[in-house]
User: Fold this.
Amino acid sequence: MKKITLSLLLTSLLAHASTQNVEAISYDGMVHISPSVAKRLNLVKIGEPLDLVTVDKTVKVFLAQGYFEDVWADENNGVVTFHFKEKPVISKVELKGYKENDEEAKKVLLQIEKGALYDAARIESTRKRIVEALNQEGKIDSIVEVESKKLDNGSMQVAFIANEGEEIIIKELKYYGVSGVDSDAFEKTTANKEKDFLGWMWGFNDGKMKLAELQYDPMRIRDYYMQNGYLDAKVDQPFVAIDFNHYEASMEYNIFEGDVFRVSDVLIFQDNVVIDDAELLKVVTLEKNKPFNIKTFRDDAERIKTKIADLGYAFVQVQPDLKKDKETKTVDVVYRIVTGKKVHINNVIVAGNNRTLDRIVRRELFLAPGDLYSLSNLKDSRNALGRTGYFESTTIEEKRIDDESMDLIVQAKEAPTGNIQLGGGYGSFGGLMMSVAVSDRNIFGSGINLGLNLEQSQRTNNYAFNISNPRLNDSDFSGNFSIYSNGTEYDSYTIDSQGISLGTGHRFNRYLSGYMGYGYSNNQYSDIVQSTTSTFDPKYYESYSKSSVTLSATFDNTDDYYVPREGMALSQSLEKAGLGGDADFWKSRTSFGIYRGLQSLIGADLIVRYKARYNYVDDSGYLPINERFYMGGIGSVRGYQSYSLSPNSGLDENNDGELDLIGGTQTFSNSFELSMPLVPEARMRATVFFDYGMIGDKSVDEIKRGGYGVSLEWFSPVGPLQLVFSNPYGEKPGDDITHFEFTIGQRF
Assistant:
C-alpha cells in the first residue's frame, strides 16, 4: 500500500459529525474490477452512518486485489467516492544475456506475459528466479538487473539483464571407502566430474560444476553399486570446498560399500492368476547365483507388466520387493502382481491434426473402440505414427473411465511435409551441382506422396515426377507411379535415360512389407570416346532398352521417420532385367540400419546409428555400363564426390589426368554415427560420422575408401536440412574430393 488519502473525508466528518449517512457510492478510475464486484467488496453501505474505520478497511480490501497502485476515498454531501490508480500494463518483457533464444526456458524463468499488470513484487520474484537458475548451472556471483521504462502510452517495458557469473571448475574429486569397484566408472553416471587434462576438447570432462545435479550424484553412485550387487551401499552427500579467488573446487565422497548379494530365487505372486507363473519367469533376465542388478530388476518388472497388460489388464500393478539374507549374502527377488480387471477401449479421440485427416491417423493405430487393451499395441501405435513422417511428435494419453474401460487420446503435432527441397555440392567430377524438388509427403493431409524433382550440374541433369500412396483406400496395399528423364556426362561417354515405373506393395504385418514393381527405360549413349571400346565390347556402348521387374521386402520397427531413437530397418530388393528389352542382368540391393538412443542409460539425448549397404549385379546376358555401381557422397562414403569412386579402364582418353570410370559389380559401405542435440528448442542436432566403403569388379575390396566429419541436422521451416562437412580418409591421387554437401527434405 503506497498511501491512503482521507483528508477530505475527515474534514467532512468533522463538519457533519457522526450523524451523516451515506447517500451514494461512486468509483473513479476503476477498470479491472466491475461495479458489481466492487459492490460486493465494499464494506461501506448506502443508508448507513459514514464510518472512517469502515472506509479504511474497504480501501485495504481494494488494494489487496493486486490491480491498483493506489486507492483513496473522499466524501461530498453524503456521496463517498473511491478513487483508483491502476497499475500499468506490461507491453513488452525481455530477457537479455541468458537463454535469449530459448523460448521455453524464458517462459519458465519470466512467468510474466505481455499484458500483465506491472507489480514490483512479481518483478523481484522473477529476478531472483533468474539468479537461482544461473546459480544452479554453477555460475557463481551472477547479477540480474531490471530495467523498467514507462512508455508514452502509459504501459511499461521491462528488461531483465543477466550478467553471468563465473563457473566453478572441479579440479579434484576423491572417493573414500571404494575397494570393490573401479571409481572411474562413476564418471559414466555422475553429472559432476573432475576436469580432465584436455577438458576443453570434445569427449573429455570440462569439470564444470552443475549445482542442480549435485544432490542427485550420490544416488547415481549408489545405483551403480546396486547394479553390481551392493545392496547395502551408502553414499554420503559430497563435501565441497570452493576457492572463490580462482573459482575452483575440490570434492570428496565418503562411501560404505557393504557386501555383494547374489540372487537366490525369483518369486512371483499374483492376486488373481491370469497367466502361468512359468510364462512370466520366461521374461525375467535376473539369473540365480549371479550378483543382483537393480537395473535388470526394474527392467524385469516392466517386462512382467507388459506381458500381463497385453492380456487386457491395463491397470496392472507390479510391486517388486527384495528379501535379503545378510548371513548368506543372498536375496530373494519378489514380484507381487495386482492385475485389476480387463480393460476395453471405449473411444479413440484424435486431436492436433489440423491438416492430416483423422482416418490417416487412425489407420496407423493398432487399438480401436471395443478392442481389448494391449500395452504392446499402444507402443507400436506411437512408433507407427512416428514412422509416417507426418508428425513432429505424437502422444497417446490413456484416460481412465472406470475399472473396465478407457479412452485413448491421440495428440499429434504436425510436421511440415510439403517443402521445396534443395541440395548442392561441388566436386571435380560434376562441378557445381544444384537440385530442386517440390514435394509433399502428405498432400492435402491424405497420406499421398507427390513430388517433382529437378537436378542440374555441369555433367548431370535429372528430372522426375512421382506419386505414391502407402495405403491404397486405407488398406494394407500401396501403389506408386513415376516418370523420369536422366542424363549424365562421363569422361568417356554421355548417357540419357527416359523411363517409367509403377508398382504395388503389401504390408504383411506392422513391421514387414513387400513390393513388386515394373520399370521400362530407353537409354541412349552419345559422345563416346572411340578407344574406350578397347576396354569393353562395343555393344556395351550401344543404346539399349531395359524392361525389368523388382521384388523387395522391408522390415522397419523404428520409432520415427527422420530421427529414430530405437529399432532397426532392413530392406532387400532384387531386380531382374531381361523380360523384354535389351538389358539382361540380376541386381541385388541390401540396406540395414540400427538405432539406439542413450537417454535411459546416460541421461543425455545421444543417438548411436549404424548403417550398412551392400549392392551386387550379375551379368546374365547384357549388363550395360550404366547399370553398374558407383560410390561416393551422401548415402555411401562422404568426403568424395558422388559417383566418383569406381573401378577404371586404366585409360586417360581426355589426357586430363583422370582415368575413365567403368563402374563396379559389387559395393559395400557402412557408417557409424553419433548424433547429439545442438539447439534442442530449434530441433537442431550435430552428428559425428565415420564412413567406410569398398567397391570392385571381380571382388568387392578392389577399392577401399573412408571419410569422416560432422553434419548439422536441422528441422528448418522449409524441411529437414542437412549440412555435411567431411574429409576423406585413405584417399589416393586422382580421387575427386569434396568437403561440403547439403540436402533439404531427406531423412537423416
In short: Confidence is low (pLDDT under 50) at residues 1-17, 425-430. The chain has six domains: 7-86, 90-163, 168-256, 262-338, 344-414, 418-744. The CA atoms of residues 343 and 402 lie 9 Å apart.
